[in-house]
């Protein structure tokens, strides 16, 4: 076909229009014939695909599992878990480049710094100060901010207890991927329930989950109220707000606790430095 077009371009008339030879018409007939053949194939496949689609929809509605299998040879089977059920028939595929190789490349060790605390306790402020300080030392970091994640990945979730648990689970799984990539992942999330934070700790290698508790008094957080959420919660316009009408379960054994020193709150830079000192002591800032 390309040869035909090239030949035709070299046979333009005086007006600049191409004089297509008769062979181009044969090409058109061939394409039409091929299209007809494809239409015939699609017609044969249509009932089978409709049946498969119908089967998927029924199974999804009945059990929450999408099951896609090729019964002709049993070689294709794909099940997607919903409603908390696990996927089946999946195998972990190992790659020759592993976490230790990525860490050697970056000259650091991947981990998850999980900053938890009440709204207004300074989690996001600390996360930004920490990532800036580590960046200045040539360390690769990424911040997973609770509000930011709800703009995309978790935008389908509410603040009901079950959705909060799913919110934390998703953030934890993403943080785990960053850690496996050799990146220092900083998650700043209220994460009010102890069991949810412990669940994230359990999916990471020992030592790679570093819990940072922003132990700031409720009165201080409410006085700050940078988003005006406490005021709305006190007025009854927000239900289930952590610290007001929904509990916050403080960590029992955090790696790092940041709190008021007397009546003075340390600056974000000072708190970030404490976290960096911990990372350095534990060997995370070198491969």
From TrEMBL:
InterPro entries: APS (IPR002891), APS_kinase_dom (IPR059117), P-loop_NTPase (IPR027417)
UniProt domain APS kinase: residue ranges: 109-258
Family: Belongs to the APS kinase family.
Biological pathway: Sulfur metabolism; hydrogen sulfide biosynthesis; sulfite from sulfate: step 2/3
Catalytic reaction(s) noted: adenosine 5'-phosphosulfate + ATP = 3'-phosphoadenylyl sulfate + ADP + H(+)
Protein name: Adenylyl-sulfate kinase
Keywords, alphabetical: Amino-acid biosynthesis, ATP-binding, Cysteine biosynthesis, Kinase, Nucleotide-binding, Transferase
Role of this protein: Catalyzes the synthesis of activated sulfate.
GO cellular component terms given for this protein: cytoplasm
Organism: Lactuca saligna
EC number annotated for this UniProt entry: 2.7.1.25
GO molecular function, one term: adenylylsulfate kinase activity
Gene Ontology biological-process annotations: cysteine biosynthetic process; sulfate assimilation
Pfam families listed in its UniProt record: APS_kinase (PF01583)
Keyword Methyltransferase: no
